Amino acid sequence: KHHSLAVIPGDGIGPEIMNEAMKVLQLIEEMHGGFKFDIQSFNWNCEYYLKHGKMMPDNGMEILKDFDVILFGAVGEPRVPDHISVWELILPIRKTFEQYVNMRPIKLLKGLESPLRHKSHDDLDFVVIRENTEGEYSNMGGRLHQNTPYEIAVQNNVFTRYGTERIVKYAYEYASCHNVKRLTAATKSNAMNHSMTFWDDIVKEISQQYNTIETNLYHIDALAAYFVSNPEKFDVVVASNLFGDILTDLGAAIVGGLGLAPSGNINPEQKYPSMFEPIHGSAPDIAGKGIANPIAQIWSVGMMMDHLGYSELNHLILESIENVLVDGKVRTPDLGGTATTSDMGDAILERLRTL
Ligand code: NAI
Ligand code: MG
Question: Are residue 129 and residue 170 in the same domain, yes or no?
């Protein structure tokens, strides 16, 4: 079976960690034998922008549309404003391809300790399902009277019934399929009295159809505190675009850091390609040094395999990562070691070969 894969390494540490992910992909392809990836790589990044004045060619989305899946690294570098690199590359892909589910596991891997003392591996194992196409990251708004004392900036939040119902439904369906008994929804309806009261209403409406699942609506500020004080409260957390974005960087921090956190931008209807990427950015502070942790990118390959129907390979990849962490000899600096990006990739590859 053939799968077409678009690879976009991006900027900064993106290409460095993507390199390790590609080694892993090649190995599982050889080991499994039952599928083949037709890979095309695209250099759409800030370098491309500086040359062409745009992050991708005009027909970029047209080109990507025909792929089965997309593997993404990270974009952003100091010479290009972040809102340009994000709004012209990642956000159009997520929005146009209706990747309305951003699936972000928060899981303390074997071999690692959480910075939260007294929290065990069982306490730290849940998923955040982030709305990925609308909400706070809408392009509606503007700036008036720029650079005057009367300047005004407005960024509207857009919550549609269609967009909100589908993400909340997905979260309940996910909980139900995984035999999860509790679902938490992030809100802030005490202060955001239009958009978030609407969000709460939809959550309550849909919860009626899942009466074996306990629903908790928590305000985002309290919820952030619970992530640190009581992470064992959570199994499935559903959140709007901005809230989910912030919560998952926090989630990554409580399980060992940004270098460990993968994600899937999923179009559940499979009408368009889904995209897999680490949740972190291009980390300009460590780019070019060869010391970035490739685990988030490699685990993203695992999530991609799961999405394509090879869940056993996702488990194998995760087991290899955990074996290396338990062994503890090879660790990148973010995990307190001195290993390079490729040392880490090679160690995972070695385990994968022998599992
Ligand atoms: P960042 O996630 O790139 O970095 C935050 C901190 O985490 C840095 O200290 C960095 O060194 C560390 N870190 C991140 N990934 C790591 C890894 N794999 N191994 C070891 N350490 C790692 O976030 P920041 O600094 O806010 O943004 C940098 C650039 O990335 C900006 O241009 C931003 O717009 C962009 N960005 C892109 C994203 C994407 O492509 N999806 C997501 C978030 C930010
Ligand atoms: Mg983020």
Answer: yes
